[in-house]
Specification:
By secondary structure, the chain is an alpha/beta fold. The protein contains 7 helices and 17 strands. The strands form 4 sheets. Strands 12-15-14-13-16-17 form a 6-stranded antiparallel beta barrel.
């Protein structure tokens, strides 16, 4: 096959390319330039640029070096404007709204896959391959492409792919879906790839130090929107009594315990963020638990539309162990999810994924009650 390979400059995409090359496929490599590191936003308190191990200029260089070493053509797509509009700006706005976003889902489905898929089709490529730890299979009886978790559940990345359409899944190829990370490293070493020992990125690519609030402050200042930077306000308990002061709602997330500046016999946690009142609401650990929530932007992967209530194991964040629940489809691509047992820290802005065993049934975005 002729395959377009997404090259991030990391070991996973590099190993995927090496594996496909060894299998005899014709490859065309693409790297996406997403974030302009020269804008002076991703810097530390001294104004020095923060090192990034994802989507940086160094990663572009590493990806090119791998493609040249394996002997296939390589191109760079400049998507800086689209990345800011589709990923960065919604990320900032979500925090300003009192949510805790996960931008990597939108980046993967709405930007990376969408852009690369269009390019691949224009070049006559049969498939679009990435280094994701996930699996896609065609079900002839149902005439449908199905998405599954990666064999290594700890590295499984199906969580980031639930927005893919049937058309996109028909061209998606995940060579690493059946592999463990150690096997992937071995493939890279055997191919003498420059990226074989490269460390993984653990943070959002445009916030490499993980200090989201500081990034948001710099971003808004850079965009002449300093007036939108959240200001201090009250921390209240569930009875509405003031128990402290916060330093801006974008510095807090549901389930947070540390950094509240409140001394109590029993630990207090952030249980709700009220943007309209500029309040952080805190409570004890039992007040973090909830039986149900609503999701928007729901995409059903396993079928077009459920005919009734759907039983599934549901994740409410990336490292959450899927828990049994019943899902009720609602109008306008929404759904109501009711767990069998209460779950902790269900957070607006996060993605929720529905599983039937290994298969991704669908997913959506958690919204306020």
């Amino acid at each position: 096959m002729k395959i377009a390979v997404a090259m991030s400059g990391g070991v996973d995409s590099s190993a995927a390319a090496a594996l496909l090359k060894e299998q005899g496929h014709e490859l065309v490599g693409f790297t996406m330039q997403l974030w302009n590191q020269r804008r002076g936003i991703s810097v530390d308190e001294n104004g020095d640029s923060l090192p990034s191990r994802c989507c940086s200029l160094d990663d572009v260089y590493d990806a090119r070096r791998v493609a040249e070493g394996l002997g296939f053509p390589f191109y760079v797509l400049n998507l800086e404007r689209e990345f800011e509009e589709s990923v960065v700006e919604p990320f900032v706005q979500s925090y300003l709204d009192g949510e805790t976003p996960i931008p990597c889902v939108a980046c993967n489905s709405r930007l990376k896959f969408a852009s690369l898929d269009k390019m691949a089709v224009s070049l006559g490529c049969d498939k679009v391959a990435t280094g994701h730890y996930a699996r896609v299979e065609y079900d002839e009886e149902a005439n449908r492409y199905r998405l599954f978790r990666g064999k290594n559940h700890w590295k499984d990345q199906s969580y980031f792919l639930w927005e893919l359409t049937q058309d996109q899944l028909s061209r998606s190829y995940f060579p690493l879906g059946e592999m463990l990370k150690s096997e992937v490293r071995d493939i890279a070493r055997d191919a003498n790839l420059y990226t074989a020992e490269k460390q993984e990125s653990q943070e959002i690519c445009f916030v490499p130090d993980g200090k989201y609030a500081e990034f948001i402050d710099r971003y808004l200042d850079h965009e002449n929107r300093s007036a939108e930077i959240p200001v201090a306000g009250e921390i209240v308990n569930i009875l509405g009594e003031t128990v402290g002061e916060h330093t801006g709602i974008h510095r807090y997330t549901i389930g947070q315990r540390r950094g509240l500046g409140i001394a109590r016999e029993k630990p207090l946690y952030v249980v709700q963020i009220e943007r309209a009142k500029n309040q952080i609401i805190v409570g004890e650990v039992n007040e973090l638990e909830s039986l149900e929530f609503t999701a928007k932007g729901v995409n059903w992967v396993a079928f077009d539309e459920p005919s009734g209530a759907v039983r599934a194991d549901v994740k409410v964040r990336y490292r959450h162990e899927p828990a049994p629940a019943t899902i009720f489809a609602l109008p306008d691509f929404r759904a109501r999810i009711i767990f069998d047992e209460p779950q902790r820290a269900i957070t607006p802005g996060q993605a929720t994924i529905f599983y039937n065993g290994e298969e991704v049934v669908g997913g959506g975005w958690i919204v306020r009650k």
